[in-house]
Each structure stands twice: as structure tokens, then as C-alpha cells.
Amino acid sequence: MIGSLRLSAIAAISAFSLVILLGFPQTASASTVRLIPTLPMASLFHFSGPRPTDLGVTDGQLKTCPSSPNCVSSQSRDAEHSIAAIVTTTPKATLDQIATLIEADASAQIITRVDDYINAEYTSDLMGFVDDVEFWANAATGKIEVRSASRLGESDLGVNRKRIEAIRAAL
């Protein structure tokens, strides 16, 4: 009996701690989406997961989103994962602007940059979760195709969608 009460108390405290840690409001600025406030202990957690080896453009497509809701892609056909591509008349210049926005964000790092493609990693302040973000200047459509996906977990609390929309708004 006491053992189950102790377990229930530990579970309640753990759940309450997660609500406190993850329940802070999110903000989307021109170049970043962060949880506020940043706690000093955040550097103790690093939930990065392994870097995907299958990112990039294959047969005119970015990687498809998994079934979990923590991914958005301009090439996705389902409403949960779909997000509009970035429409531009100057794809190369727009991709350069996107690179500048990423480089100005302390939570982001460009992993791959070639003429028509950017792959970046964004690391959350609080828990060290890593999201993989891709931008591809599709020469056939003149649009910048986008994909933003969390490596771990099920829900991202809308962070990936907010990030892409914040970048779009900053252009």
C-alpha cells in the first residue's frame, strides 16, 4: 500500500514537473521559435537523437513526414502535415535570405548548404530536442519547398509549423 502511494506521488510530481517545464508559452519571432523562459538547467538535457542520413532531395521530393504530428512539409498531401511552400520570384536570393535568418539564430546550425538546398538543425532551449529543417529551391515550380520535423517524440506543440511561418514572415 505504501509502495503504491509512493509510486503515485512520484508519478504526480513528475507529471506536474513536465507541465511546468513544457507549459510555458511559446513565441515565434522572425528567426526563432523558443520556449520562454530559458532555465539554467536546460543545458543538462540533450535529447538530440541520431542525425538522419536520408534528408535531401530525391526524385524531386523532400523526405516524407512520419505519421506523428511533429512534422510539416510543403510536399505533404494531408492537412495535419501540410504547409505552404514559400512563393518567390527570386528563389536563389530567397534561399540566401533564409540562410541569413538561420545563421542569426543561436538555436540553429546549418548542416548542409548547396546552391538550391539548405539543411539546418534547430535545438530547443529547454530540453535540447533537435528538429531537422530543409529548404529546397524547386526549379520546376519556382517555389521554396520546406520541411521541418522533430527527431524524437510525438508532439512538437506546433513548433515546426510556427518556425516555418516565422521564417516566411521575415522574408
Note the main attributes of this structure.
171 residues; alpha+beta; TATA-Binding Protein; six-stranded antiparallel sheet; two-stranded antiparallel sheet; 3 helices; globular
Structure explained in plain terms:
It is a single chain. With 171 residues, this protein is of the alpha+beta class. It has one domain: Kinase associated domain 1, KA1 (TATA-Binding Protein, 2-Layer Sandwich), CATH 3.30.310. The protein has three helices and eight strands. It has helices at 2-22, 91-103, 159-170; strands at 26-28, 33-35, 71-73, 86-87, 108-114, 117-123, 130-138, 143-150. The strands form two sheets. Strands 3, 4, 5, 6, 7 and 8 form a six-stranded antiparallel sheet that branches. The radius of gyration is 18 Å and the shape is globular.
Kindly give the count of domains: 1
Radius of gyration: 18 Å
Order of helices and strands: HEEEEHEEEEH
Point out poorly predicted stretches: 1-43
Number of helices: 3
Q: Name the helicity range.
A: 25-40%
From the helix content, strand content and strand pairing, which structural class follows? alpha+beta
Number of strands: 8
Q: What is the CATH topology?
A: TATA-Binding Protein
Q: Can I get a quick summary?
A:
This protein has 171 residues and is α+β, with helices and mostly antiparallel strands. The chain is built from three helices and eight strands, in the order αββββαββββα. It starts with a helix and ends with a helix.
Write the layout of secondary structure elements.
Layout: H1 2-22, E1 26-28, E2 33-35, E3 71-73, E4 86-87, H2 91-103, E5 108-114, E6 117-123, E7 130-138, E8 143-150, H3 159-170
Antiparallel strand pairs: 1-2, 3-8, 4-8, 5-6, 6-7, 7-8
